[in-house]
Design goal:
Elements: E1 6-8, E2 11-14, H1 19-30, E3 36-39, E4 42-46, H2 48-59, E5 63-66, H3 70-78
Parallel strand pairs: 1-3, 2-4, 3-5
Helix pairs in contact: 1-2
Length: 87
């Protein structure tokens, strides 16, 4: 990671109930220059609201997602996402 990179390690659930705070965190992280490195290794549950937010952040090309749980990878596949979540 370079000096402008930021690490983000969400934990627990990322569902519709956490979507507002998750979105706010992403907005704050990508407001500055540099890469956002997001490790999803501590995330226990993901729904489509969180997937939509991560996909929107991905379109900016400044997010690197690691530690993708198998549940999330399965959901991405089921929803028809053929491209990786991070650039």
């Amino acid at each position: 990671m370079d000096a402008n990179s930021r690490q983000y390690d969400p934990s627990g659930e990322l569902t519709i109930f956490e979507a507002a705070s998750f979105k706010e965190s992403l907005i704050q992280l990508i407001a500055n220059d540099g890469l956002v490195c997001m490790d999803l290794g501590k995330v226990t549950r993901v729904d489509t609201s969180a997937i939509q937010l991560m996909w929107a952040a991905r379109k900016l090309g400044r997010i690197l997602v690691t530690g993708i749980p198998q549940e999330l990878q399965t959901k991405l596949t089921q929803l028809g996402f053929s491209e990786p979540l991070s650039e």
